[in-house]
Amino acid sequence: MLSTKQIRQKYLDFFKEKRHAVIPSASLVPENDPTTLFTGSGMQPMLPYLLGQKHPLGTRVADAQKCFRSQDIEEVGDNRHTVFFEMLGNWSLGDYFKKEQIPWMWEFLTEVVRLNPKRLYITCFRGNDSLDIPKDIESAQLWQELFKKKGIEAKIADFPERDGLQGARIFYYDEKKNWWSRSGVPGAMPIGEPGGPDTEMFWDFGEKLGLHERSPFASRPCHVNCDCGRFMEIGNNVFMQYKKTTGGFQLLPQKNVDFGGGLERLAAAVNDDPDIFAIDVFVNMRHALVEISGRKYGHDEKDTYAFRVIMDHLRAATFLVGDNILPSNKDQGYFVRRLIRRAVRFAHHLEINDNFCRRLVEAVIQEYRDQYPELAARREEIGLAIHKEEEKFRKTLANGLKIFEEKTSRLAHGDTIPAEVAFDLYQSYGFPLEVTEELARERTLVLDSEGFLKLKQEHQEKSRAASGQKFAGGLADHGEMSTKYHTATHLLHAALRRVLGPHATQRGSNITPERMRFDFNNPAKMTPEQLKETEELVNAAIIRDYPVSWQEMPFEQAKEMGAVGLFEDKYQPIVKVYTVGDPKQKAAADPDGPTFSREVCGGPHVEHTGTMGHFKIIKEEAVSAGVRRIKAILE
Fold this sequence. Notes:
Blueprint: H1 4-17, E1 21-22, H2 47-50, E2 60-68, E3 84-93, H3 98-112, E4 120-125, H4 137-149, E5 156-158, H5 160-163, E6 170-173, H6 175-178, E7 179-181, E8 194-204, E9 231-245, E10 248-262, H7 263-271, H8 283-293, H9 301-322, H10 331-349, H11 357-368, H12 373-377, H13 379-408, E11 416-417, H14 419-429, H15 433-442, E12 446-447, H16 449-465, H17 480-500, E13 506-511, E14 516-521, H18 528-544, E15 548-554, H19 555-560, E16 574-581, E17 595-600, E18 615-624, E19 627-634
Parallel strand pairs: 1-2, 4-6, 5-6, 11-12
Antiparallel strand pairs: 2-3, 3-10, 4-8, 7-8, 8-9, 9-10, 13-14, 14-19, 15-16, 16-17, 18-19
């Protein structure tokens, strides 16, 4: 039996032998893509090259890509949904096409990982006459010949969603199932968008799944894309060969191949068990949960559901924090917080009343440390960030559950929980709305979500009106001292990133003529040694009397030159970049180097750092989970 680690390595080695450059996984936070919060597929980081940009490593590339799909959070709990997964991928960027890719995938599945070809099923694109896109007969025939060489008759059938399996092994589906583009089906594609048909591979776990007489699917036609649980997609070859134009679909001059296969699903097929959570990567997590809870996996339906949610969510949270995404109330950090809180809540169902997350985090790191060494390198930071969020939420959970029971004890099946109750739980007890929604579903109650959102909006508007002074860019005025303090935030930001690491990015600032306050990402309290080093770096930069200058440039050019900035997604295409030091050199926060700091900013700043005075840190403290604050003065 092959382990998941072995399957991953065999895949990468296989395509390396086929002259593919094997590249490392990209971050779970997409680079230069403000349209999405997370990397949700192996294709995502490769999109510029699929659209024609030249890849520096050539026309053949392969990898194992970390992926996170936040939209699947509430689907987790069955035997096949996970929010985090690894996607095995290989790409031809205008190089080989169907005649190479399909036999290679057949070879990998049947010879390398030795899946039984009698249990494999295939789908191809049915075509669309109205759009003049033909049926993908070539792919179907290529697969049919490969089956024939194994002595298997592979009948090709159409309309399986209507007529079932029909004794066939290769099936045609329409564009809802076997067409790929960023915007979905051909009719939804904008002009200029590329796309193409795909051919997918499925593993058959056997007729016993979902087809017995008591199954809700027993009276429906079974086919590879139905929901009975018998079949699982394990890979997808996309043949990107069309471009949408005003006159219809035209063939691209560069035909691409984009293969994506879920590693965990492939491991489940090799394991011949439809439960993804039964594969080896979850074994240590599962054993730890059994020991902590005293419950067994697979015996009780509700317990098993809880096990799956906890294992999936803490694995995902470990990888997200490993990519410098800390729990918070905004953007990516919101989902990290939500994952940890859901894991803790389902642990409550298993009667786990003590902190346990860190132990499962350690199991995840042990499992993945060879493929993703950054997890082991950041073991303490990851464990501490998740532990603190768990500890904080346990207090919230205990109080919130008590109040929830008090407020809903007299409600009957189908009754509505008033918006005021949900908002009071949220505002007074810190109880997340999604937890209240889940509790309502479990008790067959209805939550007035629209009313809750209205109350929340009213509260925010009142809070803004009563908040007093608001300073642009955190600045009270543009006077001499405020200007000096504003420049000092740039020096401090650069120094913190040098002392703590690149994760120590700015979260906000507040400046008056008397002092500065600077918030930044960091999972732990700074040590006295770290504070001293930071203070010394800033003062060394002041003593060096660096010139401070600015330039306007495209945002992408600013990033290439090492510029950092707060709220990057709000910047315009052309930005103002302030450099402390030589504007032609990359920033390094080195007081002996030519350039100390470079940031996207609106100003104002001093002309030379030597005019600023002596920088002194007064206090370092926590603001929220994973966010610290430094208060400092210039003497």
